[in-house]
Protein backbone atom coordinates (compact mmCIF):
# COMPACT_ATOMS: atom_id res chain seq x y z
CA UNK A 1 0.00 0.00 0.00
CA UNK A 2 1.22 3.50 -0.84
CA UNK A 3 1.21 5.04 2.66
CA UNK A 4 2.12 8.52 1.44
CA UNK A 5 -0.76 8.53 -1.04
CA UNK A 6 -3.31 7.69 1.67
CA UNK A 7 -1.85 10.03 4.31
CA UNK A 8 -0.44 7.24 6.50
CA UNK A 9 3.17 8.28 6.68
CA UNK A 10 2.63 9.68 10.20
CA UNK A 11 0.09 7.79 12.31
CA UNK A 12 -0.36 7.04 16.00
CA UNK A 13 0.21 3.87 17.98
CA UNK A 14 -3.27 2.38 17.63
CA UNK A 15 -3.42 2.78 13.82
CA UNK A 16 0.07 1.27 13.55
CA UNK A 17 -0.98 -1.76 15.61
CA UNK A 18 -4.17 -2.09 13.52
CA UNK A 19 -2.13 -1.91 10.31
CA UNK A 20 0.15 -4.74 11.41
CA UNK A 21 -2.82 -6.87 12.53
CA UNK A 22 -4.59 -6.32 9.20
CA UNK A 23 -1.51 -7.56 7.38
CA UNK A 24 -2.21 -10.99 8.89
CA UNK A 25 -4.47 -13.06 6.54
CA UNK A 26 -5.35 -15.42 9.40
CA UNK A 27 -6.68 -12.59 11.58
CA UNK A 28 -8.70 -11.13 8.72
CA UNK A 29 -10.41 -14.45 8.03
CA UNK A 30 -11.31 -14.87 11.73
CA UNK A 31 -12.62 -11.30 11.88
CA UNK A 32 -14.82 -11.77 8.80
CA UNK A 33 -16.24 -15.02 10.18
CA UNK A 34 -17.13 -13.41 13.51
CA UNK A 35 -18.63 -10.30 11.94
CA UNK A 36 -20.94 -12.29 9.65
CA UNK A 37 -22.18 -14.36 12.61
CA UNK A 38 -22.98 -11.46 14.95
CA UNK A 39 -26.42 -11.66 16.54
CA UNK A 40 -27.95 -8.13 16.53
CA UNK A 41 -29.55 -8.77 19.93
CA UNK A 42 -26.15 -9.45 21.48
CA UNK A 43 -25.22 -5.76 21.49
CA UNK A 44 -28.51 -4.79 23.14
CA UNK A 45 -28.07 -7.48 25.79
CA UNK A 46 -24.47 -6.35 26.37
CA UNK A 47 -25.67 -2.78 27.03
CA UNK A 48 -28.25 -4.06 29.54
CA UNK A 49 -25.56 -6.04 31.39
CA UNK A 50 -23.13 -3.09 31.29
CA UNK A 51 -25.72 -0.64 32.63
CA UNK A 52 -27.23 -2.77 35.40
CA UNK A 53 -24.49 -5.17 36.52
CA UNK A 54 -22.50 -2.27 37.98
CA UNK A 55 -24.38 1.02 37.69
CA UNK A 56 -21.60 3.13 39.28
CA UNK A 57 -19.04 1.78 36.81
CA UNK A 58 -21.40 2.24 33.87
CA UNK A 59 -22.12 5.86 34.79
CA UNK A 60 -18.41 6.54 35.32
CA UNK A 61 -17.85 5.56 31.69
CA UNK A 62 -19.85 8.64 30.66
CA UNK A 63 -16.80 10.70 31.66
CA UNK A 64 -15.11 9.32 28.54
CA UNK A 65 -18.20 9.71 26.35
CA UNK A 66 -17.14 13.02 24.72
CA UNK A 67 -13.80 11.52 23.65
CA UNK A 68 -15.51 8.37 22.37
CA UNK A 69 -18.12 10.43 20.50
CA UNK A 70 -15.42 12.65 18.98
CA UNK A 71 -13.55 9.53 17.87
CA UNK A 72 -16.70 8.06 16.32
CA UNK A 73 -17.49 11.31 14.52
CA UNK A 74 -13.92 11.52 13.23
CA UNK A 75 -14.09 7.91 12.07
CA UNK A 76 -17.41 8.46 10.27
CA UNK A 77 -16.12 11.62 8.55
CA UNK A 78 -12.89 9.95 7.46
CA UNK A 79 -14.83 6.92 6.22
CA UNK A 80 -16.87 9.20 3.97
CA UNK A 81 -13.71 10.86 2.66
CA UNK A 82 -11.97 7.55 1.95
CA UNK A 83 -15.02 5.97 0.32
CA UNK A 84 -14.84 8.65 -2.36
CA UNK A 85 -11.67 6.95 -3.62
CA UNK A 86 -13.66 3.86 -4.68
CA UNK A 87 -15.56 3.52 -7.92
CA UNK A 88 -19.32 4.23 -7.81
CA UNK A 89 -20.06 0.77 -9.24
CA UNK A 90 -18.19 -0.95 -6.40
CA UNK A 91 -19.86 1.20 -3.73
CA UNK A 92 -23.33 0.63 -5.21
CA UNK A 93 -22.88 -3.14 -5.15
CA UNK A 94 -21.91 -3.10 -1.46
CA UNK A 95 -24.68 -0.66 -0.52
CA UNK A 96 -27.30 -2.76 -2.31
CA UNK A 97 -26.07 -5.84 -0.48
CA UNK A 98 -26.08 -4.09 2.91
CA UNK A 99 -29.48 -2.44 2.52
CA UNK A 100 -31.26 -5.79 2.40
CA UNK A 101 -29.84 -6.83 5.78
CA UNK A 102 -30.31 -3.64 7.82
CA UNK A 103 -32.77 -3.91 10.71
CA UNK A 104 -35.17 -1.16 9.64
CA UNK A 105 -37.40 -1.62 12.70
CA UNK A 106 -34.54 -0.76 15.08
CA UNK A 107 -33.50 2.09 12.79
CA UNK A 108 -37.00 3.59 13.05
CA UNK A 109 -36.90 3.41 16.87
CA UNK A 110 -33.76 5.58 17.16
CA UNK A 111 -35.41 9.03 16.69
CA UNK A 112 -38.22 8.35 19.17
CA UNK A 113 -35.88 6.91 21.83
CA UNK A 114 -33.24 9.62 21.62
CA UNK A 115 -35.64 12.55 21.16
CA UNK A 116 -37.26 11.79 24.53
CA UNK A 117 -33.81 11.26 26.10
CA UNK A 118 -32.54 14.61 24.81
CA UNK A 119 -35.77 16.28 25.98
CA UNK A 120 -35.29 14.84 29.47
CA UNK A 121 -31.56 15.37 29.95
CA UNK A 122 -30.44 18.36 27.93
CA UNK A 123 -33.18 20.89 27.22
CA UNK A 124 -33.38 21.84 30.91
CA UNK A 125 -29.65 22.69 30.96
CA UNK A 126 -29.21 26.16 29.33
CA UNK A 127 -25.51 25.69 28.54
CA UNK A 128 -25.95 22.23 27.04
CA UNK A 129 -29.10 23.39 25.25
CA UNK A 130 -27.14 26.18 23.55
CA UNK A 131 -24.30 23.85 22.47
CA UNK A 132 -26.67 21.16 21.22
CA UNK A 133 -28.79 23.72 19.36
CA UNK A 134 -25.70 25.11 17.63
CA UNK A 135 -24.63 21.60 16.62
CA UNK A 136 -28.12 20.68 15.45
CA UNK A 137 -28.49 23.80 13.31
CA UNK A 138 -25.05 23.29 11.78
CA UNK A 139 -25.94 19.69 10.99
CA UNK A 140 -29.39 20.63 9.66
CA UNK A 141 -27.94 23.33 7.39
CA UNK A 142 -25.36 20.91 5.98
CA UNK A 143 -28.00 18.19 5.61
CA UNK A 144 -30.39 20.54 3.82
CA UNK A 145 -27.69 21.67 1.42
CA UNK A 146 -26.61 18.09 0.66
CA UNK A 147 -30.21 16.83 0.52
CA UNK A 148 -31.21 19.58 -1.90
CA UNK A 149 -28.44 18.47 -4.25
CA UNK A 150 -29.58 14.85 -4.08
CA UNK A 151 -33.26 15.68 -4.62
CA UNK A 152 -32.42 17.98 -7.53
CA UNK A 153 -30.80 15.05 -9.32
CA UNK A 154 -33.77 12.74 -8.77
CA UNK A 155 -35.78 12.22 -11.94
CA UNK A 156 -39.47 11.39 -12.28
CA UNK A 157 -38.80 7.65 -12.11
CA UNK A 158 -37.09 8.02 -8.73
CA UNK A 159 -39.98 10.14 -7.43
CA UNK A 160 -42.79 7.80 -8.49
CA UNK A 161 -43.14 6.26 -5.04
CA UNK A 162 -43.12 9.52 -3.05
CA UNK A 163 -46.85 9.42 -2.26
CA UNK A 164 -47.67 5.95 -3.53
CA UNK A 165 -50.45 4.21 -1.57
CA UNK A 166 -48.64 0.91 -2.14
CA UNK A 167 -45.10 0.07 -1.05
CA UNK A 168 -42.45 2.36 0.50
CA UNK A 169 -43.39 6.03 0.40
CA UNK A 170 -43.19 9.24 2.40
CA UNK A 171 -45.13 9.01 5.65
CA UNK A 172 -47.81 11.78 5.60
CA UNK A 173 -47.74 12.09 9.40
CA UNK A 174 -43.95 12.44 9.47
CA UNK A 175 -44.02 14.94 6.58
CA UNK A 176 -46.71 16.94 8.36
CA UNK A 177 -44.68 17.11 11.56
CA UNK A 178 -41.57 18.06 9.58
CA UNK A 179 -43.40 20.87 7.74
CA UNK A 180 -44.89 22.11 11.03
CA UNK A 181 -41.47 22.17 12.70
CA UNK A 182 -40.00 23.91 9.66
CA UNK A 183 -42.75 26.54 9.71
CA UNK A 184 -42.10 27.14 13.41
CA UNK A 185 -38.38 27.62 12.76
CA UNK A 186 -39.10 30.00 9.88
CA UNK A 187 -41.44 31.98 12.13
CA UNK A 188 -38.80 32.43 14.84
CA UNK A 189 -36.06 33.18 12.33
CA UNK A 190 -38.21 35.82 10.61
CA UNK A 191 -39.04 37.43 13.96
CA UNK A 192 -35.37 37.76 14.89
CA UNK A 193 -34.11 38.71 11.42
CA UNK A 194 -36.45 40.76 9.21
CA UNK A 195 -34.26 40.06 6.17
CA UNK A 196 -34.27 36.27 6.64
CA UNK A 197 -37.29 35.45 4.46
CA UNK A 198 -36.01 37.78 1.76
CA UNK A 199 -32.67 35.95 1.77
CA UNK A 200 -34.55 32.63 1.60
CA UNK A 201 -36.70 33.85 -1.29
CA UNK A 202 -33.62 34.78 -3.31
CA UNK A 203 -32.47 31.15 -3.13
CA UNK A 204 -35.80 29.61 -4.15
CA UNK A 205 -36.44 28.47 -7.71
CA UNK A 206 -39.76 30.16 -8.48
CA UNK A 207 -40.86 27.58 -11.08
CA UNK A 208 -40.53 24.72 -8.57
CA UNK A 209 -42.32 26.74 -5.89
CA UNK A 210 -45.23 27.56 -8.23
CA UNK A 211 -45.50 23.91 -9.30
CA UNK A 212 -45.54 22.80 -5.66
CA UNK A 213 -48.17 25.43 -4.80
CA UNK A 214 -50.44 24.22 -7.62
CA UNK A 215 -50.03 20.60 -6.48
CA UNK A 216 -50.88 21.57 -2.90
CA UNK A 217 -53.89 23.58 -4.08
CA UNK A 218 -55.17 20.67 -6.18
CA UNK A 219 -54.75 18.34 -3.22
CA UNK A 220 -56.64 20.74 -0.93
CA UNK A 221 -59.47 21.15 -3.45
CA UNK A 222 -59.70 17.39 -3.87
CA UNK A 223 -59.83 16.92 -0.10
CA UNK A 224 -62.48 19.65 0.26
CA UNK A 225 -64.55 18.08 -2.52
CA UNK A 226 -64.39 14.72 -0.75
CA UNK A 227 -65.43 16.33 2.54
CA UNK A 228 -68.33 18.19 0.87
CA UNK A 229 -69.48 14.97 -0.79
CA UNK A 230 -69.48 13.15 2.55
CA UNK A 231 -71.26 16.08 4.24
CA UNK A 232 -73.97 16.29 1.57
CA UNK A 233 -74.45 12.51 1.67
CA UNK A 234 -74.80 12.64 5.45
CA UNK A 235 -77.34 15.50 5.25
CA UNK A 236 -79.40 13.65 2.63
CA UNK A 237 -79.37 10.44 4.67
CA UNK A 238 -80.52 12.36 7.75
CA UNK A 239 -83.25 14.10 5.72
CA UNK A 240 -84.52 10.76 4.39
CA UNK A 241 -84.55 9.35 7.90
CA UNK A 242 -86.71 12.20 9.19
CA UNK A 243 -89.42 11.64 6.57
Q: In short, what is this structure?
A:
The protein is mainly α and 243 residues long. 77% of the residues lie in helices and 0% in strands.
Please write out the topology.
Elements: H1 13-22, H2 25-36, H3 40-53, H4 55-60, H5 65-83, H6 88-99, H7 104-121, H8 126-153, H9 156-159, H10 172-192, H11 196-202, H12 206-241
What is the number of helical segments per DSSP (H or I, 4+ residues)? 12
**Percent range for helical residues?**
over 70%
Query: Averaging pLDDT over every residue, what do you get?
Result: 75
Low-confidence stretches: none
Structural class of the helices, strands and pairings? mainly alpha
- The end-to-end span amounts to 90 Å
Percent strand equals under 5%
**Anisotropy-based shape:** elongated
Rg from alpha-carbon coordinates: 26 Å
Instruction: Tell me the major beta sheet.
Output: none
Instruction: Tell how many strands the DSSP assignment holds.
Output: 0
- The topology string of helices and strands comes to HHHHHHHHHHHH
Word description of this protein:
The protein has about 240 residues and is an all-alpha fold. The protein has a domain at about 110-145. The protein is about 75% helix and about 0% strand. The protein has helices at about 15-20, 25-35, 40-55, 55-60, 65-85, 90-100, 105-120, 125-155, 155-160, 170-190, 195-200, 205-240. The longest helix has about 35 residues, at about 205-240. The termini are far apart.
Amino acid sequence: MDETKHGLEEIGTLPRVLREVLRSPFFKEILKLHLTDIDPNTARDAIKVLMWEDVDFALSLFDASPQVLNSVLGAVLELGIQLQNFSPELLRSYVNHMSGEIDTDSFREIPSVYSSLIETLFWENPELKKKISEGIFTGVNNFLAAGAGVMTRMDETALEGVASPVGPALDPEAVGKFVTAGARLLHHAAEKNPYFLGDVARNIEVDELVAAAFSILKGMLRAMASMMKSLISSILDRARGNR
